[in-house]
Design a protein that fits this description.
mainly alpha; three-stranded mixed beta sheet
């Protein structure tokens, strides 16, 4: 069954879904956390202000019509992009596969135009404040989708956009349906595998060399997934005919993937003078920045803010390094150069790390401690019924430059596990020297910050709230800056509230070691922005990029090289961390100023998360409208 861009008649489905729907067919990197992120997760508390009850008293006929439109819009979107639907936990179209050919793109283009026309039938001033935000987010998504399809055109130069690993993996490992049903859906999907990769080959014109290498790596990972499918076929109770059909389809799929990989590998043997650069350039970058982040800043404004913040961090790091010098470098002459001083203290602290064999185990053991701290400090309400499973990152998800990520179920599939993917440190991937460098980067102090960011109260906690979001739009069309910004904000917020502190004479004393390495970690977030903008708009060289990360950021070479790889493979996403963090910190301080002594941190967190993963600039207006209506729209 080929996918039609839109059906004439659909039944509205009001169930919420996960944020972060891509502008085109789902790609493996879009399923990562960010990382890469590849986790775009929204949030909503059970005390949500963004609830139908909150809007009910003022609900107008226009609002009711708009609510119906949103439900129908989402159903049509799922039909257009079934892999995105499945990733949200909506499995109605699991048996369908997008073949990204010219016909599909024409249909998608027409559907986006129709939806914008329908959206235009709802004047903003006729809707409630919450529906006005949903209206803006839908318009943002559709315009971004059009731009991505017709201007960015990654489908023509990014071969890693084509990979069946995630669709296969979701059906193989899912718990939403019995094995037999999932296998039959996979059978229908794989019947189009040859057409899928043939379309990919036709689409690609002078692809980026860096993305070719990633596509080879990840599609080879998908090949290693196929024997697991075959094992499941043999264990199933589908009919003998159905089993044989699936065996044949797996053989055909393997042939299609191998042919695709071989073609890509062949392209790497000869230099293509017309190959697409991985650098977007200032014009494309500015538009992607606008569509992806919906930021309160321009790229240049964010760049300047990041440069200033870098200097603030270095000053704080120098102060702590001087405090720690007698403890860790006793008897040595203290350097007068700030960077040398910080580096020498950090070099001592990073020796405190786990081993390659116990890296994943160390992550797993820290999670209960984070849960306990959040509860004891009453930072926000947690849901103990939602499972979090720490696992090794699947092979078909590796290679994008992110060492950890979250793979989370959407609200359609609330009972499914949330996976905290941690890439293991194996001899096949790391030499002894590289493994030591990586472990020093993710030492016992930094590993705690990483787990706060990815798990509690960062991405994982946010997704638990997201699955309760009453706003479909705010849950589905997740804003990267809000999502990553929340995770980065969580890191500082935890330390501000005493995480890692010791009690001395009845008082909590912050850990200077943990704070120093937190500053180093936050410096990395800051440098992400400087690096990404510099590489894609200022032609920063690899040598200069590595020098920035290793000299100014005190990063180990393995980490810096991984980040360089990541900036070659993604654009703008690395800015989302600092962008969102800056906006959230500004909002918190703004609310503190307006609320004075009545400001309550837990209330702030739960209200902020209650608006789903809307852009922070939209959340700001909604929150200030409740406490300071006169200033709510001043920065909009």
């Amino acid at each position: 069954m080929h996918l039609r861009p839109e059906v004439d008649k659909v039944k509205p489905n009001a169930a919420p879904a996960r944020p972060g729907v891509p502008f085109g067919p789902m790609t493996p990197r879009q399923l990562l956390s960010a990382v890469a992120a590849a986790v775009l997760l929204g949030a909503a508390a059970c005390t949500s202000a963004d609830s139908k009850k909150a809007d009910a008293p003022a609900a107008s006929a226009a609002d009711r019509r708009f609510d119906t439109f949103k439900e129908q819009f989402i159903e049509r979107l799922w039909r257009l992009n079934p892999d995105a639907a499945a990733y949200q936990g909506y499995h109605k179209y699991d048996n369908e596969l997008v073949v990204n050919d010219s016909a599909w793109r024409a249909g998608a283009r027409a559907q986006y135009a129709r939806e914008l026309g329908r959206l235009g039938e709802f004047p903003l001033d006729s809707l409630s404040a919450h529906n006005q935000t949903d209206h803006r987010m839908l318009a943002d998504f559709l315009r971004g989708a059009q731009w991505s399809l017709d201007s960015l055109r990654a489908w023509a130069w990014d071969p890693s956009s084509y990979n069946l690993g995630d669709p296969i993996g979701m059906l193989l490992n899912g718990r939403h349906a019995p094995l037999n049903k999932r296998l039959l859906a996979l059978s229908d999907k794989l019947s189009h595998a040859t057409a899928y990769y043939e379309a990919a080959t036709r689409n690609l014109r002078h692809p980026s060399v860096e993305h070719v290498r990633l596509a080879v790596l990840q599609n080879n990972g998908t090949l290693e997934l196929l024997p697991q499918v075959l094992d499941s076929v043999e264990k199933s109770t589908i009919t003998a005919f159905q089993k044989e059909r699936l065996r044949q389809q797996l053989t055909v799929t393997r042939t299609a993937i191998e042919g695709y990989v071989k073609g890509l590998e062949t392209s790497l043997t000869t230099a293509d003078p017309a190959a697409r650069s991985y650098r977007l350039g200032p014009a494309l970058y500015a538009r992607k920045f606008h569509h992806d982040l919906t930021s309160a800043y321009t790229p240049d404004q964010l760049y300047q803010r990041a440069v200033a913040h870098k200097e603030e961090l270095l000053r704080d790091m120098e102060t702590l390094s001087r405090e720690l010098w007698p403890k860790y470098c006793a008897g040595q002459t203290q350097p007068t150069d700030r960077r040398q001083l910080i580096r020498q203290v950090i070099d001592k602290l990073t020796l405190n790390h786990t081993t390659p064999d116990s890296f994943v185990v160390a992550v797993r053991r820290q999670i209960p401690r984070l849960v306990k701290f959040v509860d004891e400090k009453r930072l926000l309400t947690q849901d103990p019924s939602k499972p979090l499973v720490v696992r090794e990152t699947p092979l078909y998800m590796r290679g994008g430059g992110a060492g950890a990520s979250i793979s989370a179920p959407g609200p359609y599939d609330k009972g499914a596990d949330t996976y905290y993917n941690v890439s293991p440190i194996t001899p096949a991937d790391y030499s002894p020297e590289a493994a030591e460098s990586y472990l020093r980067e993710y030492n016992r102090y930094t590993l705690q910050i990483l787990n706060i960011h990815e798990a509690i109260p960062g991405h994982y906690t946010q997704l638990v709230y997201a699955n309760r979001s009453p706003s479909l739009v705010k849950a589905i069309f997740g804003n990267g800056s809000m999502v990553e910004g929340w995770a980065v904000y969580s890191e500082r917020m935890m330390l501000e509230n005493g995480y890692g502190a010791t009690v001395q004479n009845g008082k909590e004393v912050p850990s200077p070691e943990l704070w120093l390495l937190y500053y180093k970690w936050n410096l990395r977030t800051t440098l992400n922005t400087i690096l990404d903008i510099s590489v894609h708009t200022k032609n920063m060289s690899q040598a200069d990029g590595l020098a920035l990360l290793m000299n100014d950021g005190f990063q180990e070479r393995a980490e810096a090289e991984g980040k360089w790889r990541r900036v070659q493979l993604s654009q703008v996403q690395l800015c989302s961390y600092f962008d969102g963090y800056s906006q959230i910190m500004d909002l918190r301080e703004e609310l503190k100023a307006h609320q004075g002594k009545t400001f309550d941190l837990r209330t702030f967190h739960e209200q902020f998360l209650s608006y789903g993963s809307a852009p922070v600039r939209y959340i700001r207006n909604l929150m200030l409208a409740r406490t300071a209506p006169a200033v709510a729209g001043k920065r909009e």
